Amino acid sequence: MNTSTQCIIIGASHAAVQLIISLRQNGWAGGITVISDEAHLPYQRPPLSKAYLANTVQDEQLALRAPAAYEKLDISFKLNTRVTAIDTDKKHVHLDNGDLLSFDKLALCTGARARPLPIPGADLNAVHYLRTMDDVKGIQASAATAKSAVIIGGGYIGLETAASLTKLGVKVTVLETESRLLKRVASPQVSAFYLRLHTEEGIDIRLNTQAAELMGDQTLSQVVCADGTAIEADMAIIGIGVIANTELATDAGLAVDNGIVVNEFAQTSHADIVAAGDCTNHPNPILNRNLRLESVPNAVEQAKAAAASLCGGEKPYAELPWFWSDQFDVKLQIAGMNQGYTEAVVRGDINNGRSFSVFYTANNKILAADCINRPKDFMLAKKLILQNIECNSASLSDEHIELKSLLQ
Amino acid sequence: MPVINYVEFNGTEHSVEVAEGVSLMQGALDNMIEGIAAECGGCCVCCTCHCMIDPQWAEATGTAGQEESELLEFLDTREDTSRLSCQIKVTAAMDGMLVRLPESQY
User: Fold this and answer.
1) Given an 8 Å threshold on Cβ–Cβ distance, is A47 in contact with B43?
2) What is the pTM (predicted TM-score) of this model?
């Protein structure tokens, strides 16, 4: 393969790391340059709200690969550098330092950014978002002296952050505008469990509660809710979802529709440009629909498809989505996606203790499973879903029937 | 630094140095050894960093915890010596250890 060809990857993300490794494995002999507006070599994002915030994982353990690995692969990084525009005709990118960089192939691994909260006071000191390593360093600095924190948003990031701050000895209040936690992603049963869990751990969860204003003299001192209630707080974290970073793609004329539109080979509407990870809207042949996912496994597997495409091959991306979340001593593993389920079948005791699974079914087929401290159920659920096995709710809920007996 | 001998399913051997305290999983990733997927990055969640530890090193690595055992239980490629490489931190006692990798992590 031509050694003078250049591949530029925008974003030093999980997708980017898999892409460079898969490019080299597929025989890409040309240059590979990764451009990132962050100061760090690629690092793991999932632990940020979990073990990293709680101080049980240090910076070097967060690195996705040791720096020497990139040297061996002959990868160049341009950190603290932002791409301001992509010229698809001349095939170069504009950088914020005024430079132009030419490419033969381009990969967009731009990810997503925290959704801003448009209320007064969101720019006060000790008010944070949580998306990057530097965000968490800021949160830790505030937490070192804070006695109390308000978390705005009862989704996974908000709840994981609540658990981690509690471990650090901070008194936490979570505000959620909806009538239940995790409403966008979880069933009512699982939402109720997480309400119980956090309440048992001493966290003050306030549902149907909207933050209206953050107040303080330069530094946050209280959060005022829409109903007028004021909550004293030394720090606040806003976790109300993300926005996919699609602006560069839109400006370059690529197809964008709730994410950069790609096919199963991670190809965009431009022949020499691929995209992978949280920023893409892609087809999933297992679920039989298009979707945009916020998930590391998705980023990694899609990057493999993208690398194959850049090297002239074809490796369709077709994986069952899966997710996980750590909060206190509870590990949640989710297999599949539950949209369209008609029945939620509980296996185990959902009302007491911290170990059960919920299977989401339609027409006697499992669409998804939420497994709470049940790794075995998770592994079997993945098989049952992928093999499209019929199982009735009675056998799923009866713990005397082993799940593995349902496998054919 | 301890040397770990990773052997891919096709027989390809990689003898690489892995610092003490680093996981067997990370040691494979940092040396671009194919056969470890490590989707979750080492949190004992995904079961895609499966490896087989040569029996003579079993004492050095210890045994799998409950969570790890449950994940491994229904893996198609499971063997008696199966472990998740994210759960084993390299020590001086593992110098020269033989680690076999399965045909697939899925």
Assistant:
1) yes
2) 0.95
